[in-house]
Amino acid sequence: MRCTACHAPTSADRMGMAGRVVTRMLPAAVAGAEEVTGPGEGVADDGCASCHASDIEEVTDRDGIRVLHPACATGSPCIDCHGDAAHGDTVRVRRTYKMESCTACHQAEKATLECDVCHSAHTQHERLERGPWQVTHGSQWSQTHGLGSLRSCGVCHPSDYCVRCHGTALPHPPGFGQSHGDEAAQGLSVCTACHDADTLCTPCHGVEMPHPVGFLPEHSSIAGGVEDPTCTRCHDTDECVACHVRHVHPGNAAQPPRAGD
Fold first, then answer.
1. What is the per-residue DSSP string for 23-35?
2. Taking Cα atoms as reference points, which of 98, 91, 97, 100 lies closest to residue 43?
């Protein structure tokens, strides 16, 4: 196959390609450059379809993977999944199909997630030993499974699968940032199993979290009043009033607050 078959299938394309060859590729080759730099040029689908149009109308099976292009590749250029065609590993920007992309679409479209619909070869065990699945399902899976996409986990595992070990809903539901304090108060170990308090909790809250021993006697030097947003993010102002207005002074009986206090 000539370069023009993919990069310049029409006469107009060939003129543009000839210009790039003369102005960029030949000077770079003469200068001894290891690769041609500059903006990359996309490959139009016309060049691919000139040979493969009939093949992609039906289910194609290659390397044990079955794909129905009219359903799975609608609106996507060929190079999104086949960016390494012809050039292999030397292509400047390598794009290839990934299972995560397929399953994300199947989930969004409520399509089947059965393995054998797309895989015509290899057992489930063999599939999990390839690519990113090898990382999340390998011998160190208890430490590495968090490196995977949570959406990908849901392809095989039920929604409550994570809760069995983590003790909380994963992925965290909408609004969790406003409600997670109640769960953290019940047992911080649930949070620190995945998160580091020094790098996540403290920077977000703006104050050391969880509050260290001896924080209460010293908190007046940190809080800027009952309306301090650092405090009111988690605490209601009534908690401040309960101590600072309605408390019992030494030697005096507790008195209800007066009107206007």
1. IIIHHHHHTT-SS
2. 91
**What are the residues facing 33 on neighbouring strands?**
none
Spatial separation of the C-alpha atoms in residues 138 and 141, rounded to whole Å: 5
Contact indicator for 127, 119 with CB cutoff of 8 Å: yes
Contacts 24+ apart (CB under 8 A), 21-30: none
pTM over 0.90: no
Alpha helices of 21-123 — where are they, by DSSP H? 26-30, 45-52, 69-72, 99-108, 115-118
Q: Are 222 and 216 in contact (CB under 8 A)?
A: no
Q: What is the pLDDT of residues 77-129, one digit of tens each?
A: 888 888 888 888 777 777 888 888 888 889 888 899 888 888 887 777 777 77
In sequence order, what are the residues at sequence separation of 6 or more whose Cβ sits closer than 8 angstroms to the Cβ of residue 139?
Answer: none
